[in-house]
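Q: My labmate handed me this sequence with no annotations at all. I'd like to see what the chain might look like in three dimensions before we decide whether it's worth expressing. Could you predict it?
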Amino acid sequence: MKESSYRFNNFLYNSRIPAQILRRVVVKLGAVIALGLVLYIYGFDVTYRETKVIFRILDIIFLLYVLNYITKLTYSFQRLSFIRENLGETLVTLIILFNGISKYVISYIPGQEALRFFGIQESEVIYSTGVTFFILLIIGMDFLKGLTHDRLYRIKPAFLLIFSFFGLSLVGTILLMMPKMTTVPGQMNWVDSLFTSVSATCVTGLIVEDTATFFTLRGKLVILMLMQLGGIGIVSFATIFAALVGKGFGIRQQSMVLDVFSEESLFSAKGLIRRVVFITVFIEILGAMMIYFSYDPSVVFDSIWHKAFHSIFHSISAFCNAGFTLYTDGYYANPFRDSYVQHMVLGLLIVLGGIGFAPLQDLFSIEKLRQRLHKPWIDWKLGTKIAVYMSAALIIFGAILFYLLESQNAIDGYSTSSSIISSVFQSITARTAGFNTVDIGSLRTPTLVLLIFLMFIGASPGSTGGGIKTSTFLLIMISVLATIRGKDTIEFGKRSIPQALFYKALTVFTFAATYNLILIFLLSIFEKDFNIFQLTFEQVSAFATVGLSMGITPDLSDTGKLLITSSMFFGRIGTLTLALALAGRKSHASYKYPAAHIMVG
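A: Here is what I predict for the chain of 601 residues:
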């Protein structure tokens, strides 16, 4: 027995390299074929016979993935350790086996039959979408495992961030250009498709086509996927990078974690990805349930599934600060403009998504709540205080001014409670969410200036929102006050703020202001049909990833749409990219030039 085991292990050892090469080639080829087939069946008109053939081929490819797992397990001489270290892949393999046995042994497809049981229309569409995500999951797992630590470490974090959003936007563009994504004959042109994909990926909400009527269920599911991945993309991608590089994590990467997550060290940031996913899913599910039960009785849906989909879509859109809606006139449409309970639910989701994942963890994690229960003197982290207090101050400030400016205009005739809720909601949504319960185009000029101010500041660091961030604005204000008072140091919350953080905040502000001025200048050249104020509002809304518009977005030229698209993209990744670039360009000199005096002011 021992001799047979020895011979078998010896055979495995000698054949491991050819087997590994063959396994990788088969898996990569299968991934390409599977992805192509799924995109074809998902995005194009196919016959019932073609569908059956395609799913049969996909089942064969799934079988190859099972054989791939068995091969890796066989060639692993510590098999129990292999299973423990690859629990995700093990679970995926078991799901494939269960689905295959159910389908070919007892002729029962659990996923599709479950959808039919609950009376969900287009169950095949939902099922094919699930298969699509499942295949993407397998391909993604295989891709991540193929990236060694050394390869990842050679890539700058800034480029990883840019490529992740660029890749997601490109995939979304291709998907939205497929014929079955839209309700109109043919396909969406590439400029509009790119604009919509970037708007969803960068959680902006600006649209060139009506989401409610132009896109089919498949198209809406693609937008939903882009919003969800884009909303937590920065945090998730950066945290995955931190976890993968492990001990090779340098000063630049530690600065990234500190700036983005408001974490104190790498060790506290490594487990953030699990908490981010849990917090996101929990809040979005809870939000969807609250939205589901807050619909006005006058709103009629085709089915329970239809109502549930609308609830899930708007919960994700609100928490990710995306601003996409399934209603032609947004929440200004009847009867949604009067659904004040739902407005409050959406506002709560927007605020939770906009204060950042690290403050959410500090405020609501079970560990922190239990800790404060036994030790009530333990205070919030400084980053949490800034996120909460600045968000509250800006919401109150914006709501009061909106109420005073629009009481005789947009909210004229509203009851006192309705006016207050509408004012608070617009103040909340202006800071990167993009929902509207009033007609933005009818607002007074001072109100629009107020909204531009709120949009430019945006949400808190490490959140799903955009803008220059509340902490950036606070640091600049504190430094201005310190200069006026003649202080040499910047202080806040009984803490001294390092000069490096002030320089970083100033750089972010300067970059944002300069970029917006340049884009407004270019838009004024190519978009002569609109006045400078309309273009300014549109540009700031795009750069701050807000999504509010004075109604000019669909009428922009292709050049204007591409300029706004670039604003949404760089507005989403710009702040963090600059922080990473600054952290990686620190230099130390052994000399110092004489001090100079320059007249200022």
